[in-house]
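TODO from last week: model BZIP domain-containing protein.
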Amino acid sequence: MARLRKPSAADLETRRRKNREFMRKARQQQREELHEMAGIVVQLEEQYAELCRRSASATQAVDVASNYQCSQNNGDYAVAVELIKRLGAEKLLLQTMIQQKVAWTRQLQRILDFEASNRQCMRQLPGMLDASAKIDMLDADQAAEELGFHPLTEWDLTRIILDNKWNMGHVQNHLLAPPELDTSSDTRTRRMQAFGWDIVQRVDGGVMECVFTKRFSGLDIRGLMQRTWSNDMQLAKFRKIKAETRRLQVLQQMNPHAYVLIRDVYSPTAISTFRSVFVRFLVEASKELPPSAGDANCQTLTGTGYVLGTQSVGTDHVRIMPGDENLAWAGLALSIEAFDVVDSSTGETYQQIRWTGSNDYGSEEHAQRNAADTMQGVLRWEMLVIAPALNLVSLNH
């Protein structure tokens, strides 16, 4: 077996030299790689910085463009909103002007119709009061001091007459509707017939509404309204119809067929006096009436005649003054219609009388009392004004 030869010193030196050379080359290679990597890092940093700079520039440009676009959009939106508002305001103004024009046209036509009717009425009824009629006039200064009343104008009179016509029409439409269409409580609406009158009365709180309707034959409605007008202007005669009346004075004569009056009515309650300041007027009128019950053609009839109206007006002292603790103000709205009616289908001629009222006495107790007083007043009026005209005789004969 051969023995291993021990390396010589020269071999060891050669091996060590090779190892040192290998290690030197390896370290040199590492240094070159590190230097190269450092260069690459520098390049990457420069590229990153350039990219960041470009990105910032692009973002800034985008922001500027976006801000410009937003500003432009906001400006366009603001302009659009302003335009819409302006157009809406112009449309509303135009609609208001059109409605106002229509309202003024209707009002003007109503005024012209009223003035024409008033002139016709004045021609046909030049003097409604008897020469012997005694009218109690209250001095204008006293009326202003005691009642706060100031004289009305012709425009006020026209408005009051039109308001009365509308109010009475509303009451008639409400109370004369078929019972099955009446939405009000049955306990507050009473329908009855008494002495030939068709009566409908309704009490709602302190307001009493009523409609009394009756047909007559051979009645002179002109004379009827003249007697009614004369009686309503004189306390002594009016008390024959409403005995509780304590005061009836004229505050203003607006024309021969329109007066402003004050009336105090006694009440046997805690409120001892009900006071009203109202306009009483007489106008010529015509009205469409429902057909007769036996009319197979259901032809609408036309009534022509007169309307005697009563409508409360406000004063500066519609509040309770010192010393008037037992006094209350009552709101009155009343119309007495007297029409000549000719039924062309039957040739029948008759007269229709209709009382319509809406009075506000402030409480249900006083409204119920007013309902009973109104019914008695209508019957007394018929006996005082109509019965002599018809020469009614006793049923015993």
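Done. Residues 134-390 form a domain with the Alpha-D-Glucose-1,6-Bisphosphate; Chain A, domain 4 fold (CATH 3.30.530.20).
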